[in-house]
Amino acid sequence: MPSSQGLATTDSIALEKNYRTQYPQERYFIKQPVAPGSYLGPVDASLPNADKIPLLFQPFQVKDLTLANRVIVAPMCMFSSQDGFFTDYHLVHLGSFATHGAGLILAEATAVSPEGRISPADTGLWDDKQIPGLKRIANFVHAQGSKLGIQLAHAGRKASVKAYYETLPESAYWKDNVVGPSGGAEFQWDPTHHVPRELSIQEIEETVKAFGAAAARAAQAGLDTVEIHGAHGYLIHQFLSPVSNHRTDRYGGSLENRARFLLEVVRAVRENFPAEKPVLLRVSATDFVEHLDQPSWDIEQTVQIAKWVKDAGVDVFHVSAGGNTAQQQIKAFPGYQVPFAEQVKKEVPGLVVVAVGIITDGKQAEEVLEREKADLIAVGRGFLKHPNFVLNAALDLNVKAKFSQQYERGRI
């Protein structure tokens, strides 16, 4: 497989020149001398500790990636793609977060192969033709002063399902080619999902290569980071958990074997993405099936793989939970997943940790950082409710945050 360094230089330069020739008007941006979401000072200097800069609005650096603040837009499926291509919808959707000051934006779970999509309306990065649309978004995000990453994914046994607001013809689906670490009716996620077949060793190897190739395309598109999707019951999580992985070969059984696929993916991604840019991994810390009294995925195993992936090249560990079985029992409340991130941070020194899970405002996010439960904060649905989540969080913390040049009049 070609190295990322070559793809990120020769090919990306040619791609950029071609893009500028075809779309010169889309290369015009109003200069942002200070990135939106940056700290400018207190709103009210008379308040106690007004001169103290909240951690949430202090810059953060990992490798060559520097964020204006510590708020990340978590990946959220939009089911708004055709044949895997990024569209104007994605430009507006992701671009709005940049305009409103998010430090890092992670594009939705993007399939590394056609059959790896959750639905036919998912984005993909399995074809070079899908690069320009993504690059257009990256250009816009960068012009605003924000950073852009993408979540690389394979849905495994949760693939080929309907987007919840769109009905496509049956020919759009691939119900006979839904795969997982183990196959058969007992591994069907629930009655609304398809019965998976077991991946062969050759198919596993091809999937690992697909992750690497997608990472190389992300580099060509000029992205600042990539996140490997190992959470929420998708293929990597399926391999990790004994609930969904009953294999008896080198990819099943012991934790070392169940983690083998993940580690191979990490190495492939790391080899095909610029060394100076960070690689993220999102995981589910638990299957939430303790009530079943059977082997499952839990926080102790999560801590162990955190140590392994750190050695394999992961720089940032994004801790979520659940999604691997319909039998899960989740009691969701503000910050309910933060303790998992806190445990990883305490037990794996040197690994940057992201907390997520119903973080609703600036004060709650700041408390997570102040108590050293995590290094960065990810927010998903909060950004859907309020694309200006960062600016609202700033007001919660008596922070005057930079607006984009075009929006400055909205401050008054």
From TrEMBL:
SUPFAM superfamilies: FMN-linked oxidoreductases (SSF51395). Pfam families: Oxidored_FMN. The keyword NADP applies. Residues 56-395 form the NADH:flavin oxidoreductase/NADH oxidase N-terminal domain. The keyword Oxidoreductase applies. Its cofactor is FMN. GO terms for molecular function: FMN binding; NADP binding; NADPH dehydrogenase activity. Keywords: Flavoprotein, FMN, NADP, Oxidoreductase. This is NADH:flavin oxidoreductase/NADH oxidase N-terminal domain-containing protein. The lineage of its organism: Eukaryota, Fungi, Fungi incertae sedis, Mucoromycota, Mortierellomycotina.
